[in-house]
Amino acid sequence: MRPLGDRAHVSVVYLFYYMALGAFLPFINLHYRRLGVSELEIGFLSALLVPVSAIGSLLWSGIADALGRHRLILVSSMALSIGAVFVLSHVRDFPLIVLWAALQAFVSSPIGPLVDSAAVRVAGRSGSSFGVFRMWGTIGWAIATLVVGTLVEQFSLGWAFYGYMAFMGLTLVVAWVGEAARPQRRGAEFSKEMRAVLHHRSFLVFLGSVFFLGMTLGGESNFLSLFLDSIGSSETMIGLAWTVGALSEIPVLWWADRLTKRWGSQGLVKFAFLTFGVRWILLSFVSNPGWALSLQALRGVSFGAFLVGGVGYTVEVTPAGLATVALAIFNLTAFTVSSIAGSLLGGYVFERFGGAGLFRVLGIAAWIGLLTLVVLGERARSCGHGR
């Protein structure tokens, strides 16, 4: 397959995959609330899904890197995820919701790392940029949140499920027809290089600091829509808020290479920690939907910098053949494992102190992560050049 064809394939996969996520994630907790599930139960459910997703992501990503069966695992994961979401849309009892939500989290867990590793690989051999590929995911998310938010308000929350299944189905078709062959890796080589990654001191400090930021991201993903609902935002406004947050990522992703050359991967991550904390604190004082919507622009800048810097640094310290599993570790730390604390803490704080109390806690957590990265990261580098 020619590099141009590879670039187009990865871009379209990102577009449809994030359209599926954008149709589903901002509205699923609203669906649970409409069914009578409490905020505390929503936090418990979100936290429970994290270890399920973590196990699935590491398991399937490791198998993909070790055996070179990336496309088979990718399309199988997508197909199973569509089926699980279909069933989830029909269950009403909380125990059944837990069961099918957990199954959906397990089967969909390797999709993100597999798509990211393919993008990094194609970018490396075609002279393109990971950020430009990932930008198409942002565009897809923005389109889906706006369109599905409008459909949800006019008709029903069922459109969140319809959107996910339709867009994930398109992603599956594109992934199936695209070229995803990878060189096979054998167990001994894989194990040796994986141990080297896990003993990289600066990388471990990086993951530790990312955990704190991941807590804030977990709190946002699970409770931002509920917070916006509590201050009087309509479903369309909620969808628009997620759209604005996504669109504001585009400049950072487009100029990712230049920003990385100027600040370095860790420099971008530090900027993200700082601005995320500022946004959470400002949001804690907002009671007007319009002001909350305006602050979403800062969210995209922060998240774009964190994504580009985090993926870039992970790839920098990882042997080429371990990109998928290393990115799975990064994703687990940033978006799943830390969400256990973020979801449980978020559910408790939101229910007891409301959205204002929650976002103040999240802002402090982001700044603790920044302090950890600055202080302990410097010590790790001075003690052993990063190892």
Provide keyphrases for this structure.
0% strand, 86% helix, mainly alpha, single chain, 387 residues
Strand residue percentage: under 5%
The parts where pLDDT drops under 50 for at least 5 residues are: 180-188
| Rg (C-alpha, Å) | 20 Å
How many strands, what sense, and barrel or not for the largest sheet? none
Number of strand segments: 0
Ends distance: 38 Å
Quickly give the structural class: mainly alpha
3D shape: globular
Mean pLDDT: 80
How many helices? The count is 15
**H and E order:** HHHHHHHHHHHHHHH
Q: Share of helix among residues? A: over 70%
Question: What can you see in these coordinates?
Answer:
The chain is an all-alpha fold. Helix content is 86%, strand content 0%. It contains 15 helices and no strands. It has helices spanning 3-34, 39-67, 70-88, 94-108, 111-126, 130-154, 158-177, 187-198, 201-230, 235-247, 250-254, 256-263, 265-283, 289-316, 323-384. Helix 12 crosses helix 13 (265-283), helix 13 (265-283) crosses helix 15 and helix 14 (289-316) packs across helix 15 (323-384). The longest helix is centred in the last third of the chain and has 62 residues, at 323-384. It is globular. The model is unreliable at 180-188 (pLDDT under 50).
Summarize the structure.
This protein is an all-alpha fold and 387 residues long.
Secondary structure layout:
Layout: H1 3-34, H2 39-67, H3 70-88, H4 94-108, H5 111-126, H6 130-154, H7 158-177, H8 187-198, H9 201-230, H10 235-247, H11 250-254, H12 256-263, H13 265-283, H14 289-316, H15 323-384
